[in-house]
Known about the structure:
Elements: E1 28-33, E2 47-49, E3 71-72, E4 75-76, H1 77-85, E5 90-93, E6 117-119, E7 125-127, H2 133-143, E8 146-151, H3 158-169, H4 175-182, E9 193-196, H5 209-221, E10 232-235, H6 243-253, E11 259-266, H7 280-307, E12 314-322, H8 341-356, E13 361-367, E14 377-380, E15 383-386, H9 388-396, E16 403-404, E17 407-410, E18 413-416, E19 419-422, E20 424-430, E21 436-442, E22 449-456, E23 463-468, E24 488-489, E25 493-495, E26 499-504, E27 508-514
Parallel strand pairs: 1-22, 2-5, 2-13, 5-8, 8-9, 9-10, 10-11, 11-12, 12-13
Antiparallel strand pairs: 1-17, 3-4, 6-7, 14-15, 16-20, 18-19, 20-21, 21-27, 22-26, 23-24, 23-27, 25-26
Amino acid sequence: MKRTIQLRVVVSCLLLGSAVLATAAGNNRLIINADQGKSTISKHIYGHFSEHLGRCIYGGIWVGEYSSIPNTRGIRNDVVEALRKIKIPNLRWPGGCFADTYHWMEGIGPREKRPSIVNTNWGGVTEDNHFGTHEFMDLCEQLSCEPYICGNLGSGSVQEMQQWVEYLTFDGKSPMADLRRANGREKAWRVHFWGVGNESWGCGGNMRPEYYADVFKRYQTYLYNFGGNRIFKIASGPNDDSYSWTDVLMREAGTVLGGLGLHFYTVDWSNKGSATQFDEREWFKTLKKTLSMKELVERHSTIMDKYDPGKRVGLMVDEWGTWYDVEPGTNPGFLYQQNSLRDALVAAINLNIFNNHCDRVRMACIAQMVNVLQAAILTKDEKMVLTPTYHVYDLYQVHQDATLLPIDFEPGVYSYNNEQIPAVNISASRDSRGKIHVTLCNLDPNHTNPVSVELRGVRVSRISGRCLTAGALNAHNTFDQPNAVKPVEFEDARLTATGFESTIPSKSVVMLELE
Length: 515
Ligand code: AHR
């Protein structure tokens, strides 16, 4: 087997890492079985969430047709262009908690005639309903992504939810289809993903799982498949480790649901902390917490396996991400937070976890897309900044719809204050052109981590990569310095007789491509 060692780079990622000369923390040996992939990493794992919350919709996406901010039918061009680059596959809307207070008919028709309502969940601000069904579907069309609509089960009626589906997807003659046409849309849209309530254990109605399972079955009965449209019904799933919720839902409604949502935020509710002012103690605490996503996914999946051994039902992690204190001086109800290198690691670790469990995890939507919680994009009037989280989605888009490759892995450890977590986190896939992509995170902020990889079942002759890191744990992009954290080419990887080896910079995310 002829292997050539080839790496040409302009900028070394290592130059950006602060710990270039620090000692390596462990020897991470791994085997990638490149010919044994069985499961597809659904592109929908790379989904996003947008709620009527703070400046996510208003200001972040919708500025209105008469805004001086460049827009297409009221939707910001800069935000759409940035999101198209990372190929977002789906967008969940209108909430969140907002979904169970939202009455969709208030958001259609001439905008000046739409009623203003109170956004009771998020700051008690006035919601003028200018962004409604037509605007959301236009956004999805501009993004070339699939809509994921969350219907109101908490305070809405069965009829209201049924009519929304009919309004959106029925092409024939009916009161709802005619109303859609009267509002300017002739052709029915295609809507596949449909949430039947949100957090029905909490803001969506404070229900017991037994009660919600029955209500879910009732509502879903009337969500018809019109024409060629097929509704994929997603139930409000468990909060964190509420395993009994999963058990009851799967037992009572497992045969009629398509997916079960899981919500898990990386947060310490007793002390959320600042998004940017933190030390290594909080870095470690955040990464340790986020790693528990693996256990949650595995335990919920095990329960699902009991009722659904064929894995027909998807685990949809339709809200996840970091949740810190809001930026000083901003409305506490708007959940606006900055986004640092730490968030990049959180995003990368979770996406690796989802990839590695793609036999059950079929969708994930980070909370939220713009200006709220762990946002990919921040805006301030006409300015826009791409966060470190955005750049992780950029690096990881290579995994969308690729085949997951099994990995045997013995990670080294990252120790802090007598606690230990795995230092390196990884996933690998093979795309339709045969290219292999390996995404690696080094959680250790003080040491580089060597990885030694045996590649089985494939021949490769070229390796290249990109890397996201920075000098400081809390490095972040601002409106004045939008490029403080961004990916650069990575040179520290070389082919060997049996695979490849690399040295992963401290506190970094690396994407390697082998062909
Ligand atoms: O994403 C913010 C909120 O977090 C959502 O509205 C709700 O579903 C969750 O509790």
